[in-house]
Design a protein that fits this description.
two-stranded parallel ribbon; TIM Barrel; eight-stranded parallel sheet; 349 residues; single chain; binds zinc ion; 11 helices; 16 strands
Length: 349
């Protein structure tokens, strides 16, 4: 998008604004869309079905909703750059780089549900943070009590969102217990704040275990206790996806999807692996919500995959700006999983 002439960019923006008006999608409404997506079987209102697809210049925007999606995996965010840590200045630069390259954050839930609601011409990016490390969400002492450290991931994302309102505050923190974010006195406050900000708490098992080494009931216990603990601190938390510790799932996949331990149920709509490539579109036949690959958010991998999408723009998911319509080039239609289209329209060009 940054390469388009200003006039074209203006047209895309105007259409995006129109799309927002037509779908009634203020940021508040976006929350309610998100909440509605949590309900078991939401049906679109009848009026939404009758709307026509949002008109865009297909040859200029080149939407490709069968393209691949970046799910980024961060660990520590700190004053150190390394294999498992992103320097906070580099994290800040990542947001700027992604923003300028036309990426817009969505939640893992909206991705899996194919509820990708971003402007025409932009691409979804999903932020995931594993392990609940100290630098992901850190409080410092301010004049009026604890405040969010401007150099922690949450602080940096909040600041970026306030300066770029078209950059949604969307991320999932895959934490384990008993001490997520390493300031035990603030666990409740932080988990509640994540939910209040519209971000998500994910399942990373209760004690960061290799699920393959446990019995089926032992694996269920680890996942159920993670949900119980999150909701003990933040009763409104919806914990419905898991980042598999070490990228290793249980022997029996059904226990990954849902289960129960001592009356505590859990349900995962998605399971995330550790590596090592972009994920297929949620309507691609190759899409498997229980084996979603991620890209490690370290310099070399970010350079590699952002470079890949620059070199092969036809591989990248590009939105049509209309979340009720799936638009892609005609020649890719054989890749579509018709079972995942639901009641959306398909448009080709
Ligand atoms: Zn982990």
């Amino acid at each position: 998008m940054n390469k388009l002439f200003p006039i074209i960019r203006y047209c895309i923006l105007a259409l995006a604004v129109l799309a927002v008006i037509m779908t009634g999608c203020s940021s508040t409404a976006q929350r309610s869309v998100k909440q509605a997506a949590n309900e078991p079987s939401p049906s679109e209102p009848a009026t939404a079905k009758q709307e026509q697809p949002v008109e865009i210049d297909l040859e200029k925007v080149k939407p490709n909703e069968l393209g691949q999606v970046l799910i980024l995996e961060y660990h520590e965010v700190s004053d150190t750059e390394g294999r498992w840590s992103r320097h906070y200045n580099n994290f800040r630069a990542d947001l700027q780089r992604l923003y300028q390259a036309g990426y817009r954050p969505i939640s893992i839930r909206d991705f899996v549900r194919n509820n990708i609601n971003i402007p025409a011409g932009t691409s979804p990016v999903i932020f995931t943070f594993d392990d609940g490390t100290a630098g992901q969400f850190h409080y410092i002492n301010g004049p009026n009590g604890p405040e969010v450290d401007p150099n922690c991931a949450v602080g940096i994302m909040q600041d970026f969102h306030s300066k770029h309102p078209d950059w949604a505050l969307e991320a999932t923190f895959y934490i384990y217990y008993p001490n997520p974010f390493r300031q035990p006195e603030y666990i409740e406050r932080k988990l509640k704040q994540i939910v209040a900000l519209g971000m998500d708490i994910g399942n990373h098992t209760y004690s960061h275990v290799n699920l393959r080494k446990l019995s089926t009931s032992g694996a269920a216990r680890e996942m159920a206790l993670s949900v119980r603990e999150a909701q003990r601190y933040a009763p409104d938390a919806v914990v419905d996806s898991i980042a598999l510790p070490y990228g290793i799932g249980p022997t029996e996949e059904s226990v990954l999807r849902s289960g129960e331990y001592e009356g505590q149920r859990y349900e995962n709509i998605a399971a995330l692996l550790v590596g090592a490539e972009p994920a297929p579109s949620p309507v691609d036949k190759k899409f498997d919500p229980y084996r979603l690959p991620r890209v490690q958010a370290i310099q070399s991998e970010l350079d590699k995959w952002l470079g890949y999408f620059e070199k092969y723009p036809e591989k990248r998911y590009v939105s049509d700006g209309d979340h009720l319509t799936v638009t892609a080039p005609e020649e890719l239609m054989s890749e579509v999983d018709q079972n995942r289209i639901g009641d959306k329209r398909i448009r080709t060009y």
